[in-house]
Design goal:
By secondary structure, this protein is mostly helical. It is built from four helices and no strands. About 70% of the residues lie in helices and about 0% in strands. InterPro entries: DUF378 (IPR007211).
Amino acid sequence: MSAIQRIALVLTIIGAINWGLIGFFGFNLVAAIFGDDTALSRVIYGLVGIAGLINLGLLFKPSEEVAREPRPEAR
């Protein structure tokens, strides 16, 4: 996993935690820290969205275990 993918994964996890807080408690952590509808909070939301798109590629990437297994030869 590359450094960009790791950063994207961390941002996606932060976004998921924020959505969990919103859903369960009605508390928006990003808005509480950076202000409600400020330019900085919009940048954070944008970065989390981009991170989600980057992580979308992980769904279609074969896992390392599958890639290492030898394929049976066709007869």
